[in-house]
Amino acid sequence: MGQYCDVSHSLKSRVFPLSLGAGKKFGGLNLSNNFARERVDEAAYQRAVDHLRGAEVRLPKISELAQPATIPTAHTEALAGIDPDRPDAGNLYRVHWFNGADRQSRVDVPEHVVLPTELTGVEAKIIVALGNRFPMIRAHKVLAAYGCLVPRLLTGQFDPARHRAVWPSTGNYCRGGIAISRILGCRGVAVLPEGMSRERFEWLDRWVSDDNDIVRTPGTESNVKEIYDACHRLAEDPDNIILNQFSEFGNYVVHRAVTGPALETLFRHVKGDTPLRARAFVAASGSAGTLAAGDYLKQVLHTDTAVVEALECPTLLYNGYGEHNIQGIGDKHLPLIHNVLGNDFVIGVSDRSSDTLNELFNTPVGRRFLADRHQLDQQQLISLADLGLSSIANVIAAIKLAKHLGLGSNDAVMTVATDGAEMYGTELAKASGRRAPAVYDEVDAAQSFGEHILGIKTDHILELDTRSHERVFNLGYYTWVEQQGVSVEAFDARRDPAFWDDLMQMVDVWDGMIDTFNNH
Length: 520
Description:
Layout: H1 7-11, H2 42-54, H3 62-66, H4 73-78, E1 112-115, H5 117-120, E2 125-130, H6 141-154, E3 164-168, H7 172-184, E4 187-193, H8 198-207, E5 214-217, H9 224-234, E6 240-242, H10 249-271, E7 277-284, H11 292-301, E8 304-310, H12 315-318, E9 345-349, H13 351-361, H14 364-374, H15 378-383, H16 389-405, E10 411-417, H17 425-434, H18 442-454, E11 461-463, H19 466-483, H20 488-492, H21 497-503, H22 505-519
Helix pairs in contact: 6-7, 6-10, 7-8, 10-11, 13-16, 13-17, 13-18, 14-18
């Protein structure tokens, strides 16, 4: 890796020196902006300070989101009268995993469900952290949006009085970005495939100030390049700041700093004084931000990390391509912020399974079947509504991994539910319409359970050895070097584990800058 081997030295400079001239852009992608440690535009910074002061916005530190008990009492008390679904600045202090089921109160342990063996068919405990407790969008992607935009504010790279924040996404991240934009009093632009769920677009319609701020790109979940192409066009206007979750390292940093410790707290709570062992963390690929929590858990709990992708578009598994409906996970590329060399497994899950189980979990007939035949109690049945399509895919992958590793009752596999079923009501209707006759009955429920839960096999699981790590890592070259203009040296710097560990220095840097910003 030559001159790029000393990553810690690189992070100590003002911006990360990746053979990029300061401020040089490649289709809206500016890697040096990810690592600014001081203000690069004093005038823009001061305008941002004045703008947020006028809007009575105080920014929470990343460490406060990781440990909400450290949030000043005055801010905690002020939350009592704030609706979690309103664009109120106070909701920034709810952008963490410790919100209660009402999404207003704060709890000591992240809201979660431990799926019973009667449902999963495996003895291992499948622990699911619930992302629909987050404010405004009922999904944890609002945390990623905060982690991507705030560093730009702190360094004078984003002027809320002038710039438009552009949020490329397959659904939840752009909603999180629009929510953060509204709170900060700036204009946000959502870029997402036109084939995503109607509920996503209905939410966006309510939150954007102009219909032109919703950019619909061709295709569905798999069409990420089309999103990038739209961002290239938008980046031609210097007032558009592209906050690409797939390449903004703030996404990685905030999840490793906030989601990772939250999952550790959750596991230690479930474990109690039992001999339970944390064996793995499972998460869909998506932007790879959430997977950063796996790097944290690997250090503190010695877990393996498993990446989930759609079997209909098996990019990491088989260099494959295709279309699928596991909304929110993205594919046909490898995100720049994906530390693939830190992953241990890749698991393919079919969207047929996630669509079918969404119907089983969220229809009266399906729930009655689970209660009568598999003894799920009322609370367990209610909790199934906390699982959206990608969440169900994560659960299926966790069960597959538990079977593959032969895990028992003293083993735990952790995963996350990015969002809940409320985002997929129209997808449920589509599933019903695909069957003939379009009536879901107990036989359908039994078939769904038998095939897509009890029938889960250990096929389409790749254990990543040295050669497969190298193959998967190299996939990213075609997106980031050939298409997006990242230098080969910058791309290869990510091979070194120290690169990812040293990124976490930015938490203290940004927290210090947040203090200065708030008190300016």
